# Entry
Amino acid sequence: MPALKNCIWLDGTAEEAADFYVSVFPNSARGITTRVLEGSPFPAPFPPGTALTVDFTLDGAAFQTLNGGPMFSPSEGVSFVIITKDQEETDYYWDALTADGGLEQPCGWLKDRFGVSWQVVPAEVDDMTASTDTAASLRAMNALITMTRIDLAAMQAAYRGD
# Structure
């Protein structure tokens, strides 16, 4: 199978974003950085020496940021899902990714300060919302749609009917 890499198109913040993501996720590291060269076929709108691409891994998953310019921006059409083990881990990623200008959105979605969309979801949420107990699943879904950051205890209570 070929290797897969997620590429995030940015407008001048490729290195800053890669460094930020590597600082948030454990077992992560920067890799190769390709720079704009004098006479490069990819010079605009950045001067020589600017990062063109930055490769990095986030806990083993391959990513790349690309300083592509202002033609495209990240959107909710693509998001990265972080499956967390508990509320503490959910809160950690939520707080880190919404810091310094991130935007909270409904149902565990957020945009970080670079405009990249993430979903921060405790693993148990899928178990509750896909349960064969349809009444409990519906209660959990109804609780979920009222939340921005997912409150696992509140979802568990709704699922149980408390």
